[in-house]
Amino acid sequence: MGTSVPSEPRHAVVTGTSSGIGRAIAERLLADGWQVTGLDVAPPVIVHAAFAALALDLTDADAIDRAAAELGTPDALVHAAGVLRVGPLGGLRVDDGALMWRLHVDAAIRLANVLLPAMARAGRGRVVLLGSRVAQGKAGRSQYAATKAALLGLARSWAAEVVASGVTVNVVSPAATQTAMTDDPARREATPVLPPIGRLIRPDEIASLVSYLLCPAAAAITGQEIQICGGASLAA
Predict the structure, then answer these.
(1) Coil, strand or helix: which one is 14?
(2) Cα dist. 3→12, 75, 77, 200, 211 in Å?
(3) Which string of DSSP letters, residue by residue, matches 120-183?
(4) Per residue in 90-126, pLDDT tens?
(5) I need a surface site. Which of 18, 64, 233, 234 has the fewest CB within 10 A?
(6) Beta carbons of 34 and 13 less than 8 angstroms apart
(7) Please, is 232 exposed, middle or buried when counting C-beta atoms within 10 Å of its C-beta (0-12, 13-18, 19+)?
């Protein structure tokens, strides 16, 4: 296992930093003393001396490849960008599935394909992919579930490849979370179900777990899916 020590401040690349979970993660890491590069097609909303925004369409394969080649060797990659499109059998839209696959899965692959080997060579690094409890399957969410389930396979496979190099790869899978996605008109007929705690998960709660997974104390946690479910996974 590598023993090289990263220079300070540590550098994290975070996708989807203009809203929701990605923004909460970026703000938490900045508060923790990280330097953060945010990848998002939307204009930046974070103003901080240690934050740099890189305008990037995460559904554009060529743009991702170019950006990844310019990011150097970050200490962490957090893929939080996401979109939800819903639909039942008989009403599935191919374009919706393709959009979610490009954003959730292909973007993760393209970023990791460049950044993870660089981390492994440096002997250090953390990767966290934002999954979903819906990956287990849910009526009307099949295309979304498929993309989030794919992240689990990617994370475990990548973790196995870099486990001896001081790099960890994990998935954080929240239950329904209070973000703009829950208010998206595209899902007006599919309102989120409150978990047993009686409220939606907060983005800052997800950010806290991600912050821990990126810290030195989490070096032995890799290839895992950690759910923030608000009791949704408990037996009835």
Answers:
(1) strand
(2) 19, 13, 19, 40, 21
(3) HHHT-EEEEEE--GGGG--TT-HHHHHHHHHHHHHHHHHHHHHGGGTEEEEEEEESSB-SGGGG
(4) 999 999 999 999 999 999 999 999 999 999 999 999 9
(5) 234
(6) no
(7) middle
Return the H-helix or E-strand segment holding 212. Answer: helix 203-213
- Look up the pTM and report it: 0.91
* Per-residue tokens: 87: 């639909």
Is 144 part of the annotated catalytic residue set? yes
Is 12:78 a contact under the CB 8 Å cutoff? Answer: yes
DSSP 68: H
Query: Which entry of 34, 51, 144, 158 is annotated as an active-site residue?
Result: 144
Q: Within 59-136, where are the H helices?
A: 61-70, 94-100, 107-122
- Token digits of residue 189: 């007929």
Whether residue 60 contacts residue 41, with contact meaning beta carbons closer than 8 Å, is answered with no
